[in-house]
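Slide 14.
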Amino acid sequence: MLTRALENQGRQGHIARPVRRAGSQKRRNGRGEQPHVSRSNSVYKETYNLGLKLVNTLGIEANLPPETELARTWNTSRTTVRAVLEQLDRSGVIRWDGRRKSILRIPGPDEYYSDDETQSTSKKVETAFMEYILGGDLAPGTILRESELVREFGASTSAVREYLIRFSRFGLIRKEPNRHWVLAGFTKDFAMELFDVREMFEMRAFNNFMANRHEPAARAALDALEADHLWLIDNIEAEFLKFSRLDERFHNVFVTRLKNRFIDDFFELVSLIFHFHYRWKKSDEKDRNLMAAREHLAIIRALKAGHRDEAEQALMKHLQSARRTLLNSVSWD
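Slide 15: predicted structure.
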């Protein structure tokens, strides 16, 4: 789970303005290799990016939080956290002296790993599957054969099967006994039901955040979100496709603070659906993303100013816009 200090980052990533290049390989540690960690390589890389992002947010002369808090925030092991801290120390980004982890410099643009490098196999299958069922013209009742999906996604049979089993709990697909998978369909009724529940959870998350908005970590989360939204708005012509990840991170800042496993599970489906609905209708994609980013920014600034009513009204306006966008982005039968 994300902690209050770093909710601005999210496990789904940040706006990848800088990209880590092969030429900076040696900077990862003194041997030009990645440190040994107990989890997958992509997890280390993603966590390393989160570390760089945190350094950039806190600034020079600040101190990083304790390892236990970082592990909880980044939803990873202390072994991975220590590997990241060791590399940050080795590369001169921080000075790690006992419990003090002082920031010495802001990382350069070549020190981040690219999105492709930080994405796990399961995440790649998830992305490919959602693009496949939400971006195509698949009608309810369409048969989904594992062998075809394996070829389509370029993934292993076990990876595809594991994802389908996990995804089936949402009710969009079902397994015929001893046979193939069937697409139950993303219907208009399903979308409306999904949105009704989403609004209830979003408002609960909003109220919880308001009650704790004075915490320094909450302020830091809003500051980072504001900076990333301003950057995206300024660069919308070339970078509008990055909005979906920023949108997911924006809502996670509020939702993850609830620390409710059932709400987390529900928002996994929400993030999948609403992450990809921006891709369904291409004609006004840039304008829609720009409008949503500005709505986010209005919420962020009202929260920072402590204007509860204004923030709540801005949130409701954004949720209503998102509902309209979803309904207008799909050709319903």
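Speaker note: The two ends are 39 Å apart (CA to CA).
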